[in-house]
Amino acid sequence: MAQTTPVHPVDEVPPVRQLAAFGLQHVLAMYAGAVAVPLIVGGAMKLSPADLAYLITADLLVCGIATLIQCVGFWRFGVRLPIMQGCTFAAVSPMVLIGTTGGGLPAIYGSVIVAGLAIMLLAPVFGTLLRFFPPLVTGTVILIIGISLLPVAGNWVAGGVGSADFGAPKNIALALFVLVVVLGVQRFAPAFLSRIAVLIGIGVGLAAAVPFGFTDFDGVGDADWVGISTPFHFGAPTFEFSAIVSMLVVALVTMTETTGDLIAVGEMTDRGIEPRSLSDGLRADGLSTVLGGVFNTFPYTAYAQNVGLVGMTRVRSRWVVATAGGILVLLGLLPKLGAVVAAVPAPVLGGAGLVMFGTVAASGLRTLTQVDFKGNNNLTVVAVSVAMGVLPVGVPTIYEKFPDWFQTVMNSGISAGCLTAIVLNLLFNHLPAKAGSAAPEPDGLADGGAEEGVEKSREEVV
Predict the structure, then answer these.
(1) pTM for the complete prediction?
(2) Which of 26, 123, 162, 196 would you call most buried, defined as having the most Cβ atoms within 10 angstroms of its Cβ?
């Protein structure tokens, strides 16, 4: 009998009912973050409710298309891993500045299109930098991603930023109830149900929230049945030099963040990222960003929220996330469906987010267990990188006196921590040790340049 080649878990196609459940779970995990960017930018520009609704449906549509490009892929576009795409928060401040200082949405979209083209051109260059991401750096970056996301979950738990009852005990109680449901399902339910523990937790939480007045479905009745985003709805793009420069800085930041997310998913799915696949993933980011500029939305990047969901559920199929992309396309074309999803209260998402985002941080710790911390300075690399990554998360206004380009780079804990880890790894593990330096202490805090355990290939580590 002919033997069939075993299919890698990333390429497996689960049954339709599982695809739908797992895909919806991914959509719920990223929905709040996905719609936040158009809400913030449109709100700052004082757009009408109709224009805000248009921005949201356009965003969901392109989110879905971008996710399909990344997961399914074609030619040299798409990493073909379970990666959800969404609008990057790194672009919010520059876009608000561009939009409110006379350029308006056309200037934003012109700079977004140029940034997307630049990402596509720079993708092969970033692909060659993969050797600067040994397990020491990747583990640190994944840890920082998880820690950086926890405040997002915390704000959801409290009721959502700007809510009138932010921090009310009832919000925290609802979030903890969802957390208990998620943990209970994961521990005691059969294997299939444990994999959709987040979806079950959100469903049970929503059912409990409605009678207590946490949410209502009035917005569903007001939403249109069909909404189609047309190219350049807000006018032809304009190309202003200052806007383009600031968006190019954002492009470099998002490429750094996406690199960390792709490596994290590669570690979780046992399909290590190679220079070519990294380039393909970044190239898909660039194409999605160009589409964002054309279809009235913003720059796109890999969503770290969903990285945690992959690690928590251990469902590694890229077709699950592709299904989530299809659901997002439907939400973008059918605003009434989007309004139903938007009715999920923030505390419900917060309870699930605590598990998901904590899972990302724990995955980073697991990667760091593969690194040798004896007789070298690796502990210093991790310590300082995590400190630099957490700094803007704990003190968001720390860099507000610095130039805009500096804030764009360093206000993102992920990019700040990632850049720090790369530089310190080069400093301590690649530059020759100074002559006559003292032998490093076992705790790894003294000088030294040992590379043992740092430069193992990712294939060896896995």
Answers:
(1) 0.72
(2) 26
